[in-house]
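dude i think i finally got it to work??
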Amino acid sequence: MGFLSLFLPYLFFLMLFFLLLWIFIKSKWFFFPLVVLLIGVFKLSSHYSFTFSTKFNPSNQGTLRVMSWNIRHFIPFYETKFKPNKEEQTQKIFDEIKQYSPDIIFLQEFISIPSLGSTDPMNYLKERLGYKYVQFEGEDVFGIKHRSGNAIFSKIPFIKSGVIKFPYDVKGQTENMVYADLLSGKDTIRVYSLHLKSFGFGDREYRAIEEAKNESDYNIGESKNVLRKMRNTFRWHGLQSDFVKSNISSSPYPFILTGDFNDVPTSYAYKTIKGSLQDVFIERGSGLGNTFISATSSFLRVLPTLRIDYIFADQSFNTVQFFKGGERISDHLFLLADFNGLQ
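look at this
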């Protein structure tokens, strides 16, 4: 079901085509697509924003601006291997941050490289860009003393911050959630950065996806491997999203939750974590809003339904505007949202 949810918009328009066709030929079968469409329209509303957003105002005076971005360990878009001294790539990301000057940044797959000294991304953000308040939880995933994980960088002092560790072993393919409490105006708010388990696709899986488009190269065994990985990951997402929901439900303050869910808006993970929260893209964005552009699969690269990164906000927040950008810097786009206080 998680796999099929990727194609929901296409299935919706396919049903619409059959509805019009069978009405035109006066077939009693038109009742079938009509019922399916009436059921599915509610799901489509989580995939597609029907609002007509105005031009994004880069000035954030009087608002709280947040940015969420999976930066893929600073690996350039068309590369697959980590290179610790890729200064050109890190500078592209820092330039985007400087351009929009968010008050709080949530970075998934952030990597700290202490051996670089003052040019370590951690030090650069703190000392040169002014994000002095940091909550970071990382592991040495490459075995070279470079810590990778979830990070919150803020210009606003923290009252409290910490790590919420998942109680499940997912073999290094997830990052623990981090949070911080801070004072926004006169209100204390909580912010979370989240990264649910990755699918763990490598060259083998991406090759199988590409070959599935060419019948002569089709390998059913490799396709089963891809579907098996997807099935297992969707199961992990179910466990993780239940855990996240139980934690955020006990927040003592209004909160903003951001991150990479590795799952689309019709998924169990999205529905469970979102609950009654605002999906800022649905509130202030427009269109399908895909956030992931695959660097390794031409099929996934053109699939416009891959909205897997989100900014959720408590209903008490007043959302002013939303923007996404940074295309083909990372394989994820960044999300930017402005809030002007609590209602």
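The chain is about 30% helix and 25% strand.
im so relieved honestly
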